[in-house]
Amino acid sequence: MRFYIRKRRQAPAIIIVALIDILIVLLIFLMVTTTFKQQPALKLALPESSQAQRTGAQESPPLVVSIDPKGNLRLGADARPVTAERLKVELVSAALKTPDLKLAISADKMAPFGQIVKVMDASKEAKIKIVNAFTKDETKP
Fold first, then answer.
1. Which CATH number fits the domain that encloses residue 87?
2. HEC states along the chain?
């Protein structure tokens, strides 16, 4: 009787570098295809308007002044807290840099109206001609 000697097979080799390369490509693909939505720094309940119009995509973005329900002022996209006096100085310097500057007021519907008037007065002092307010379309829920 002849016995066969079984040769021991080697365990299959897994090339870890190739797996890492594939995972990196998948990660890059997912990062590129994911859309990033910029969230505002403040949660505001905007007032509704039936006459609201969207601004054009070709226009330069306006300088945004946010007013929360307590009446605190915040300036710019990064929502830096400012006082009314500091807001005047910031608006004047921004208007000097860009003469056709547009100002957008994003105030909560429960914000004190006096603060909105202060922002509008500061924009008049800075000679900003276009002042808009962010609103919510009343037809949308």
1. 3.30.420.270
2. CCCCCCCCCCCCCCCHHHHHHHHHHHHHHHHHHCCCCCCCCCCCCCCEECCCCCCCCCCCCCEEEEECCCCCEEECCCCEEECHHHHHHHHHHHHHHCCCCEEEEEECCCCCHHHHHHHHHHHHHCCCCEEEECCEECCCC
Whole-structure pTM value: 0.57
75-89 pLDDT, tens per residue?
888 888 999 899 999
In a domain, 101, yes or no: yes
Report yes or no on 5 lying in a domain.
no
Full residue range of the structural domain in which residue 70 is found:
48-52+59-137
Centroid of chain to Cα 120: 23
What is the C-alpha separation between 25 and 99, in angstroms, rounded?
A: 46
Length of the chain: 141
Whether residue 79 is contained in a domain is answered as yes
Tell me: pLDDT of 140 over 60.
no
